[in-house]
Amino acid sequence: MQVTQLNGPQIISTGSATPQKSLHNEQIGEIVDTSDEWISTRTGIKSRKITDNKVGITSLAVEASNKAIEKAKIQPKDIDLIILATSSPDDLFGSASKIQYELKATKAAAFDITAACSGFVISLITAAQFIKSGTYKKILIIGADVLSKWVDWSDRRTCILFGDAAGAIIMESSNMDCILSSSIKTDGSQTDQLSLTANSTISNPALQLNHRYYNFIDMNGKEVYKFAVSKLPTAIADCIKNANLSIEKVNWLLLHQANERIINAVASKLLLPQEKVISNLSKYGNTSAASIPLALDEANQKGILKTGDIIIMAGFGAGFTWSVVLLKW
Ligand code: UT7
Question: 225 in ligand 1 pocket by Cβ < 6 Å?
């Protein structure tokens, strides 16, 4: 879409970061009753990257952001806003401010968005609103999660799935709007199907004072699976229709990387051929808010995304939330 003023959001660069350490399916088979064969066939995951003990999302996010900043050929002080999508911040009050400090992006406002695996797409849609309104001109959008630290490593239903990573993009105002259509959906009645809830314990019995801590990730995998496969195709088809496009015009499908079977089922419902599907979860597992920008950066680095390509990005997960953005590269 042509816009009259310089307030059309455009993605001008991407970056990503993953920890050094890999954890292969066979290694998980040594600690819980599972196998490479089960994990590969049910999920498509072969391996994932895991952060060391004291490493959290901040350092991964800073590394991914610095790469995106460098590729955009801008300075950190040029950034007006930092939006961090994460559900595993290093600080419950938010980690975006620390990232702003470490990047030396002194002019940028910064805040976190918590929406699990939909977080990155929701953040991208939010950032686009700030550009379209003329409020900001350069926005750094980050998706970063370290869910390996929040799984119960004795629970084979969940510990096989998650890995750690960060991905980042720079969005800039231009005379073209790259967002063709978008949607954000929530079904709060399903919150209990996938959660990382707080718990509390009495710390002073006399005064009945308590303090909170967090449980491990709890998931009803089958229900999450059914939700994703039933809701995403409709939400994506609606976005394509709202942009007055047809599915044939779509060049790439980039879904949240949770399960290869989910990705393939959604692609097949949309009648999108396999060669249009971007997938890298075999190497990284489910990296939550990082999965879409990580795969986007990888595709961008490979040079497979061409100017003018139509890309569907869709996140889904806890909440339940699901969000779709249709964009022109
Ligand atoms: O970011 C969004 C987050 N989450 C998701 O997207 C998850 C969506 N769901 C899924 O990806 C799949 O439901 C899973 C991969 C989690 C599970 O696959 P499934 O095909 O739905 O398996 P299931 O839960 O129906 O379990 C089938 C069997 C069960 O045994 P029985 O009851 O048939 O004897 C499980 O106990 O597989 C067993 N099982 C395992 N076996 C070996 C469950 N986990 C494992 C495991 N290794 N890791």
Answer: yes
pLDDT at 6: 82
pLDDT value at 168 more than 70: yes
From CA 32, how far away is CA 46, in angstroms rounded? Answer: 16
Q: How far apart are CA 311 and CA 160, in angstroms?
A: 29
Which residues on adjacent β-strands are paired with residue 113? 85
Residue type, 46: K
Look up residue 271 and give its two tokens.
């009648």
| Other CB atoms within 10 Å distance of the CB of residue 176 | 12
* 8-176 is a CATH 3.40.47.10 domain: yes
Q: What is the CA radius of gyration of the chain?
A: 19
Looking at the DSSP bridge assignments, the partners of residue 144 are: 166
Average pLDDT over all residues of the chain: 97
How would you classify residue 116: left for phi > 0, otherwise alpha for psi between -120 and 50, otherwise beta? left
Q: Is 1 exposed, middle or buried (0-12, 13-18, 19+ CB in 10 A)?
A: exposed
299-319: b (≥16 Cβ within 10 Å) or e: bbeeeebeeebbbbbbbbbbb
The Cα 214–Cα 229 span in angstroms is: 29
Tell me which of 42, 263, 291 to substitute to probe ligand 1's pocket, judged by most ligand atoms within 8 Å of the beta carbon. 42
147-170 average pLDDT score: 98
In CATH, the architecture of 181-188+218-328 is 3-Layer(aba) Sandwich (3.40)
pLDDT, residue 43, reads 98
Which residue in 7, 117, 239, 300 is the catalytic one?
117
